[in-house]
Amino acid sequence: MAASRRSSQQASGTFECVTQSAEETRQLGERLGGRLQPGDVLGLIGELGSGKTTFIQGLARGLGIEPDQVKSPTFVLMREYAGRTPLIHLDGYRLEQGSSAVWLDLEWLFSPKRITVIEWADRVADCLPPEYMELRFAYKTTNQRTVSAVAHGARAAQIISEIQKTHETVSH
Ligand SMILES: Nc1ncnc2c1ncn2[C@@H]1O[C@H](COP(=O)(O)OP(=O)(O)O)[C@@H](O)[C@H]1O
Ligand SMILES: [Mg+2]
User: Fold this and answer.
1) Nearest Cα to 61, choosing from 36, 92, 29, 21?
2) d(CA 52, CA 146)
3) Pocket flag, ligand 1, residue 46 (CB < 6 Å)
4) Ligand 1 near 144 CB (within 6 A)
5) Cα–Cα distance between 154 and 41 in angstroms, integer?
6) Window from 5-14, 34-43, 49-58, 100-109 with minimum mean pLDDT
7) Most exposed of 6, 41, 131, 134 (fewest Cβ within 10 Å)?
8) What kind of fold does domain 15-171 have according to CATH?
9) Mean pLDDT of the chain
10) Hey, is 78 helix, strand or coil?
């Protein structure tokens, strides 16, 4: 029986690349956006200026949303954009590290009808669902950013492996 045991818990993928410009980061976001489905959750982590919002602009493009609407919401914690699937954009920048955001309506935020993307996901770590895609952004040079993805759950692993394949096709 042991042989038939499914390894869904191990079905985790990773992806890493260096983008050479803001537009390349948007293109990566657009490719991911084109693959997302209602219920998908993305948690973005990275210092200020590392490209999180830029990436979400591309993500919006991939979902048929006008990318200019996507801005770093300095005072606004959350925005919703209408697209093929509604996109919720939460920015935890104003939240204190490790604060438990008990007032967040998690049922609304992680609805199976919407796609949810969270900047500064490390600040609302307690609130994240068990399955989501973690995306890490790091400043490399003025125009280069390292973008890496880690799957939490089989669904994110599946998307990452698809992105990995298209990335290989695009860059070779
Ligand atoms: N390769 C790159 N990827 C993303 N942004 C880049 C890149 N190169 C330069 N930039 C610039 O860096 C800044 C990133 O800002 P932003 O996306 O708002 O970061 P964050 O949301 O992480 O604070 C933008 O001004 C963007 O034009
Ligand atoms: Mg931002």
Assistant:
1) 29
2) 11
3) yes
4) yes
5) 13
6) 5-14
7) 6
8) Rossmann fold (3.40.50)
9) 87
10) strand
| Model pLDDT, residue 124 | 87
pTM: 0.89
| Domain locations along the chain | 15-171
Which of 1-5, 120-124, 134-138 is least confident?
1-5
Residue nearest to atom 8 of ligand 1 (CA): 143
Q: Atom 1 (ligand 1): residue with closest C-alpha? A: 21
Query: Residue 76 corresponds to which tokens in the numbers above?
Result: 């606004």
Is pLDDT above 80 for 2? no
Kindly state if the Cβ of 57 falls inside 6 Å of ligand 1: no
Length of the chain: 172
146: which residues sit within 8 A by CB, 6+ positions away?
A: 16, 17, 18, 136, 137, 138, 140
Where helices occur in the chain by DSSP H, the ranges are 22-33, 52-62, 106-109, 154-171
| Ligand 1 center to 146 CA (angstroms) | 11
**How far apart are the CA of 142 and the centre of ligand 1, in A?**
9
Q: Which mutation among 20, 54, 137 tests ligand 1's pocket best, with the greatest number of atoms within 8 A of CB?
A: 54
